[in-house]
Amino acid sequence: RKEVEQDPGPFNVPEGATVAFNCTYSNSASQSFFWYRQDCRKEPKLLMSVYSSGNEDGRFTAQLNRASQYISLLIRDSKLSDSATYLCVVNGAAGNKLTFGGGTRVLVKP
Amino acid sequence: ETGVTQSPTHLIKTRGQQVTLRCSSQSGHNTVSWYQQALGQGPQFIFQYYREEENGRGNFPPRFSGLQFPNYSSELNVNALELDDSALYLCASSLTGLGNTEAFFGQGTRLTVV
Questions:
Q1: Span A59-75, average pLDDT
Q2: Is the pLDDT of residue B6 over 80?
Q3: What's the confidence (pLDDT) of residue B13?
């Protein structure tokens, strides 16, 4: 079983719609959680950290469920520029070793 | 821009050759991590360097090796290149200390092995 698993998609989303997707992780000792965004042939960039109480950054909402070991990302009012691959990232207890999921591809269409 | 720079940006090598990739970390950061990203997959952790010593390693063979220098820049060396080594190699810089900071990625080196 992979340490971090994501639905690869693609999620085809009409512009203005809401899309949500999850990621599961296997290591219950994981300390911190992130969503990164990666555009085609570019490096990953931090979208947002994920906190236990859930957090929101503009149109983006992230949730963490430690009991079920999953995190989620919700995008409201999708823009064409939201088209990208969203990487779920988990940081273990020791050091800054980031474990990435395979990514969820989102395509926002007019 | 993150302040993390990698060189070269693109590279073509022949199977069996050796390659060295370079990374300059962001000012003030003491930790460099290297990742391999094959097409259509998420980045896979290769290893991490903290204060010039290896500080964790992923599931990669010994022909993947690295160095970190006193200025915290780093090199990734791959010997005996194989076709499957073709990938985007990403370097991430961060600060390890009382609290771990966000990791910032360089733009990557795209390696093609033919």
A1: 96
A2: yes
A3: 98
- Report phi then psi at A9, rounded to 5: 75, -155
Q: Given the structure tokens 């693609």, which residue do they identify?
A: A10
Q: Using only C-alpha atoms, what is the Rg of chain A?
A: 13
Question: How far apart, in whole angstroms, are the C-alpha atoms of residue A109 and residue A2?
Answer: 31
Instruction: Work out whether strand B19-24 and strand A45-50 pair parallel, antiparallel, or are unpaired.
Output: unpaired
Instruction: Tell me which residues of chain B have a C-beta less than 8 Å from any C-beta of chain A.
Output: 31, 33, 35, 40-45, 48, 50, 55-56, 58, 88, 90, 92, 94, 96, 100-108, 110
Please state the φ and ψ torsions of residue B103, each to the nearest 5 degrees. -95, 130
DSSP SS3 for A82:
helix
How far apart are the C-alpha atoms of A39 and A91, rounded to whole Å?
22
CA distances from A56 to A47, A72, A75, B93 (A): 11, 12, 10, 26
Return the amino acid letter for A110: P
Q: pLDDT at residue A94 above 60?
A: no
Cα separation, A12 vs A85, whole angstroms: 12
